[in-house]
Amino acid sequence: MAEGRARRLLGSLWIALLLGQPDPAGAAARSGSQSLHTGSLVRTFTPFYFLVEPTDILSVRGASVIMNCSAYCETSPKIEWKKDGTFLNLVSDDRRQLLPDGSLLINSVVHSKHNKPDEGYYQCVATVESLGTIVSRTAKLTVAGLPRFSSQPEASSVPRGSSAILNCEVNADLAPFVRWEQERQPLLLDERVFKLPSGALIISNATDTDGGLYRCVIESGGTPKYSDEAELKVLPDPEEPQDLIFVRQPSSLTKLIGQNAVFPCVAVGFPVPYIRWTRNEEELITEGSGRFLLLAGGSLEISEVTEQDAGTYTCIADNGNDTIEAQAELTVQVLPEFLKRPANIYAYESMDIVFECEVTGKPTPTVKWVKNGDMVIPSDYFKIIKEHNLQVLGLVKSDEGFYQCIAENDVGNAQAGAQLIILDLAPATTGPLPSAPRDVVATLVSTRFIRLTWRTPVSDPQGDNLTYSIFYTKEGINRERVENTSRPGETQVMIQNLMPETVYVFRVVAQNKHGPGESSAPLKVATQPEVQLPGPAPNIRALATSPTSVTVTWETPLSGNGEIQNYKLYHMEKGQDTEQDVDVAGLSYTINGLKKYTEYSFRVVAYNKHGPGVSTQDVVVRTLSDVPSAPPQNLTLEVRNSKSIMLHWQPPPAGTHSGQITGYKIRYRKVSRKSDVTESIGGTQLYQLIEGLERGTEYSFRVAALTVNGTGPATDWVSAETFESDLDETRVPEVPSSLHVRPLVTSIVVSWTPPENQNIVVRGYAIGYGIGSPHAQTIKVDYKQRYYTIENLDPSSHYVITLKAFNNVGEGIPLYESAVTRPHSDTSEVDLFVINAPYTPVPDPSPMMPPVGVQASILSHDTIRITWADNSLPKNQKITDARYYTVRWKTNIPANTKYKTANATTLSYLVTGLKPNTLYEFSVMVTKGRRSSTWSMTAHGTTFELVPTSPPKDVTVVSKEGKPRTIIVNWQPPSEANGKITGYIIYYSTDVNAEIHDWVIEPVVGNRLTHQIQELTLDTPYYFKIQARNSKGMGPMSEAVQFRTPKALGSAGKGSRPVDIGPDYKPPLGGSNSPHGSPTSPLDSNMLLVIIVSVGVITIVIVVIVAVFCTRRTTSHQKKKRAACKSVNGSHKYKGNSKDVKPPDLWIHHERLELKPIDKSPDPNPIMTDTPIPRNSQDITPVDNSMDSNIHQRRNSYRGHESEDSMSTLAGRRGMRPKMMMPFDSQPPQPVISAHPIHSLDNPHHHFHSGSLASPTRSYLHHQVNPWPTGTSMSHSDRVNSTESVRNTPSTDTMPASSSQTCADHQDLESTTGSYLANAQDEDSAQNLPTAHVRPSHPLKSFAVPAVPPAGSSYDPALPSTPLLTQQALTHPVHSVKTASIGTLGRTRPPMPVVVPSAPDVQETTRMLEDSESNYEPDELTKEMAHLEGLMKDLNAITTA
Asked: CA–CA separation, 1261 vs 1281, rounded Å?
C-alpha cells in the first residue's frame, strides 16, 4: 500500500514538474530533510560540508605550518590536498603529511631566492564514494623572504619638543618582525615613541633622553639581522621661526574590512605645528572617538575599518605662521560574501535546472562553478546566466552530484555548494498508457526556433486530457532537453533558443493520468542559416564644429558577412520624436543647418547586401553657442527718484538664446546728447537699477543679452525722465485738482490737472468709466498724460467717469464726473484741446483693444474650450510678439465664487476641472508688456450633465399614523446631482444581504422627495436604499436604512385578515392563504353574497328566455352557417380537436373565473420593473413571460403613486367596485362581466404559494380595466392604442381555444377585431392592468369571451372572433393582488356603459347573435336546464349559510 502511494506521489510530481517548467528549479525540493520515493527506495539529500577550511598564513623559512581542514559526512570522507591546482602526493613526502582530521602539516618550510616549494595556494578536497566531491576555499601560504633592508636609519638632529623619524624599510612580509634598539638595548614603545607598520620609528615631543644611537633588528626565526646604527641629537629650542615642512606624508592605503589602518603624518617647524585631519573635506573628530586615534606626532590610526571609512584623508599642519596639507586615499576591500547560496535540487532526466548564487564583495567578485571538484566549463548545456547562476540543460544521470559556487576577488574567496539528485521516473499506475503521438512535423523552421505539431495518439483520438513532452537534442549528442505543452490537449509547441544551421532530433511523448506513454519516431530538422548582417559601427563620435553643424565619425563594423554598401546616419533634436536620416558612403559626415546651442542625438546603421545591420548606441552632442539672435523683451522703465531709474525686462524668446545667457549689457544716454553712451554690464537678473543720474533729465535705455560668444541685438531705445526733486512715495497721491469731460457721439474726451500737492510721487492715472457705474472699465495712463479719449461708447448713454492718481503705494482719492454721449444725429465734433498744452503729448498710451468674438464650446461635463479673436493682430491672426492672454471664469453658484484665471499664448484655451451641469461665464484680456486691455464681453457655457456621483441624502423612514402597514420614506437630493433629477428608485427588502435584483423596487417620478409604501408585514425589519437618476443614468445607492414595522393593532393578527372573494370561491388546496385585501366586516361579506346571488338568478332567467326564443328560429340556412363556422374554427392552430368545438353560451359560472395578472416583464433588469414582490409570506408575484416588453415596462415605471388613493389598492375595498348596465334595447346581447384580478395560482415562477387550483380544468379570466374616466367615449383607434394585450394562460385543459369564438357574418368584424388584438400587444397601455377572458372547460358551461393564441404565435386577423369587452374603471391604477367577483347590477350608482371595440351595428349584431343561438339543439338545452337547477341549489345553500 505504501509503495503504491509512493508511486502515485512520484507520478504526480513528475507531471507537476513537467507542467511547471517555467521555473525549472521551482518544483524541486530544496531541503536536506525532504525525500522522494521511487518504489521502495528512499533518496534523501546527504549532508556533506566542511567544518573547517584553510585560511591564509604568513610563515618564515624553517618554521612548521598547519593548513587546517575538516569535512563532515555520514560516511567518512576521503581528504586530499591541492597546491596551485595540482593534487599533492603525500604518501612519499617526508616533509608534508596528512593529519587524522584532514589538516595538512608542513614541516620546516623551505624558502630561498630560487626555490620556493611551499609557498602558494592550497585547497582541501573531500570525496565520498558514490556521492560526490566538494572542495574548500583556497588559502595562500606566504613565506617571509630573506631579511634585508631597503632603507636604514640615518644620523639626524631634532629640536627639543619637535618630532623625528628614523627609517627602517623592509618588505611587507618582514615588517611584523622588526623591532628597535637604543644604545643596543630594546626600545620601549609608548604613545610618544611608536613604530609605523612599515617599520619606521617616530619620536614626537623630543626630550634630551631621546638622544643616542638607534638601530633596527629583523628577527624572523633565524639569526637576527641588524641595521646600521644612526645617532639622533636633541638640540635646544630654536630662537628663530623655521619653515613648516612634512618629514613624512600619508600615503594611500588599501585595507580589508576589519583591519587597522595608519596614516603617518609628521611635520616639523618652529613654532611646533598642530596636526588635525579631515575626511572628504569634513573635520574628523579624534577626541573621544573609539576608532579614530591621533598618534604621537600627528599620525592617524583607524581601528577596524568599515566600508564607510573609505575616502580622502587630509593631514593639515598649522603652527600659526603657516599651514600645509597632505592627502591620501583609503580604499576598503570586502571579502566575498554570499547573499543567496545554491539550494539542493531534485530533478528528472532531460529537465533544465538553475542553481542560483548571489554574492557581494569589494572589488566585485567573479564566480566560477565546480561540479564534484572539477571546474564547470560553460558550453551549450552548462551556461552561466544572470552573471552568477548556473543553468544545466537537458539533464542526464551523470549530472548528479555536488555543485559549488566559488566567489573570488583580490582579497579572498568563498564557496557554497548544493546537491543535485536525478530521480528515476515513477512506474506507471495501473491503467492504459497513451500510444505514440502521430504525424510529428515541423510546421515552421527559422534560424533559432522551430514550431512542431502532431496529431493525438491512436489510443486517445480526442486527447483533451493528454499533456505532451517534447524531447530534443542536437544530432550526435546524447543529452536531451524537454519542453512541455502549456495546457492539456494542445498539439503544438514552439522550441526556442536553438542554434542556426544545426540539425536537431525531436520526439514527442504523450502522458495521461497513469503516466507517460510511447515516444514518437525521431524527427530530424535543421534550422535555417542566419543571414549575416553588419554589426554596430564601432567608435562613433560626434563633434560640434559650429553653432549650426556637427561632424559624426565612425569605423567599419567588426562583424558582417559581405561588403558594407553604405551607412545611414540618423539624427534627432532632443525632446523631439521624429528622426531625420541621411545616406553616407564614407566613415564621416557633417550635418549642417542645425539649431544653435541645441542637443542632438546621432546613431549610425550599416547596410550590406542583406539589409540594415545593428544600430549603434546614440551619441549626444550640443551644437556650439553663438550670440543671441533676438533682443530681450518687454523693457520697461520706472523712475525711482531724481537720480535713479529701475529697468525691468524679459529674456529673449525661447529658441533665440543661442547659448547660455551670461548677463545683460545696458546702454543709456541723455536724450539731448545722443553721442555720449554709457555701458553697464549686469548679471543674469532681469532688472537693473541705474543710479547717479541727473535731476529732471530724460534718459534713453536699451538692453542686449550676452553669451560667451558676445553681445546679441539690443532692444529699441526707451526713454524716461528723472524727477526734478525727490518726492514722497510713502503715501498715495492726493485727489487730482480738476477733471473735465467733453462727450461726443461715441467717445468722451477726458482732461485733468495733477494733484495740488506736487511733493507726492504720481506714477500714473487710472480712468474708470461705465454706464451708470464707473467700475465697468479701467484704463491706466502715464503720469505725464493730461488728457485721454475714451472710445467705442454707445450714443445717447449716461456714463459715469472717475479719475484717480496712483503710485507704488496705491491709488489715491477718486474724482467723479458724469456725461451723456451725444445722439447719432449730432455731428458737431469740436476739438477741446489747445495746441500750446503745458505738457508735451506722449505717444498714445491707450490700452490694447480687448479680444472679441469670445466663444465657449462645451466639450464634456468638465471641459470647455474658449476661443477668441484679437483685432490688434494681422488678418491671419498670427501672434508674432510677446503678448499673452488671460482667461478668467466663474460660476454664480454660490454667489460669492471668485474668479479663476489662466494665461495663454494662443487664441484658445481649454478650461478643465469644471463642475458638471453648471453655467460658467468667461472673459478674456490681452497683455503686452505693461499694457493690458480691458476684459472682453462675457461668453457663457453650461457643462454637460453627468450621472449623479453621490447618493440621495438624509434617508428616513417613518410609519404612517393610524396605518401600521404603511410607511413614508423621505430623503434629500444628492449633493452631487450633476444634472436635473428625473426620478428616484426605492429598493427595499427584509434581507440586507440579498442580491440587489431580489429587492422590491418602487419608482418615484420627477423630483419628489417623499413616497408611501403600503401593505408591509407587521413587526418585520425592512431595509431601504434609494438611487437617483438623471438624463445620463443612475447614480450610486444610498446606504441601507433599517426600519421595523409596528406590531399588529386590534384583534386582527398576522394572516387573519378576511378577504373579499366571490360567493363560489373555493380555498386552494393545502392551505387558506389569502391574497391582499382590505379588512372587510362579516356584514359586508353577507351583503356581497346576497348581491351576487341576486345578480346570478336574474341573469340566468334572462339568458334562459333568450335561449328558448332563439332555438325556435333555427333554419337550414343557419345550420349551413354553423357548419361553415365549425370549419373555419377548425383551421385555428390551437390545441384540441375541432370535433369538440361548441359555440359559447351566455351562462356565467362564477367559480370558473380567475384572473392572470400581466404586470411582470420578462426583462431581468430590476431597475426597470415596477412589479411589487410579496410583502409577506402569503404573497406571490404574478409573472407573465409572454408579451410585455422593456419599452412597456419603462413607460409604466414612473406613473402614479402620488397619493394614498393612487397606490396599490383595490377599488372593491372601498365600496367602489365598477359595475355595468346591460340595456338589451340599445346594447347588443353581448356577455358582460365585472371582474377583479386575483393571483394566478398556477404560476410556475412562484413555487412558494401554498394554494393550488380546485380543479385542473378551471378557466382563467384576463380582465382589462380601461383607464379612461366614466362616461368618456372612445374611438376605435383610441381603444386599440389603450388596451393591454390579451394573454393566454397555460392550462391542462385540452379543449380547443377556438371553442370560445363566435362566427361573424361580416369580414369587417373579423378584420377589426383581429387587428385590435394584434396591435394591442405593442401598445403602451395604462398601468399594468390585467385583461379578462374566459376559456371554457366544458361545452355550454363557459362565459363567451374569446381566447388568445399562445405566447410567441401571431394572431391571425382573418379568423373570426368576438371583440373583447373594454370595461371602464376608476382612473387610478391597480397594482396589488385583486379578488374576482361578479359585477353587481343593483347598485344605486349610475350605470357604467360597456364599450365594445369595433362593435357592429344593431342589425349585424342581431344577425350574429342569431347565428350563435341557432347552434343550440333542444336536447342540449334540456341538459343545460338540469345543470342550472343544480346551480340554483348551490346558490340557495350559500345564501342560507
From this structure: 21
**Residue 976, all three cell numbers:** 452631487
Residue 700 amino acid letter? S
Please tell me what DSSP assigns to residue 674: T
Q: Which of 79, 2, 64 is nearest to 37 (CA)?
A: 2
How many Å separate Cα 884 from the centre of its chain?
37
pLDDT tens figures, 95-125: 888 898 899 999 888 888 788 888 899 999 9
Mean predicted confidence (pLDDT) in 1293-1306: 38
| DSSP structure class, residue 880 | -
Beta bridge partners of 755: 736
CB-CB neighbours of 770 under 10 Å: 16
- pLDDT for 624: 92
Residue burial 1002-1029, b: 16+ Cβ < 10 Å; e: rest = bbbeeeebebbbbbbbbeeebbbbbbbb
The residue assigned the cell 343593483 is 1386
- 3-state SS record for 683-744: CCCCEEEECCCCCCCEEEEEEEEEECCEEEEECCCEEEECCCCCCECCCCCCCEEEEEEEEC
The pLDDT of residue 999? 92
Residue 616 CA to residue 97 CA, distance in Å, equals 60
Cα 447 from Cα 497, distance rounded (Å): 9
Which is higher by pLDDT, 237 or 1078? 237
DSSP 1017: P
What is the model's pTM? 0.40
The secondary structure of 517-564, three-state, reads: EEECCCEEEECCCCCCCCCCCCCCEEEEEECCEEEEECCCCCCCCCCC
Residue 595, pLDDT above cutoff 60:
yes
The enclosing H or E element of 604 equals strand 599-608
d(CA 1104, CA 1393): 24
According to DSSP, the β-strands at 1265-1266 and 1367-1368 are parallel
pLDDT digits (tens, 9 = 90+) for 389-407: 999 988 888 888 999 999 9
CA atoms within 13 A on the CB side of 351: 31
**pLDDT band (50, 70, 90) for residue 1440:** low
The chain-wide mean pLDDT, for the chain, equals: 74
Find cell 579631515 and name the residue.
278
Here the contacts of 754-759 (C-beta below 8 Å, separation 24 or greater) are 754/805, 755/805, 755/812, 757/733, 758/727, 759/725, 759/727, 759/728
The length of the chain in residues reads: 1441
Give percent of the chain with pLDDT exceeding 90.
Answer: 28
Residue 766 has pLDDT above 50, yes or no: yes
Which of 575, 590, 607 is CA-nearest to residue 541?
590
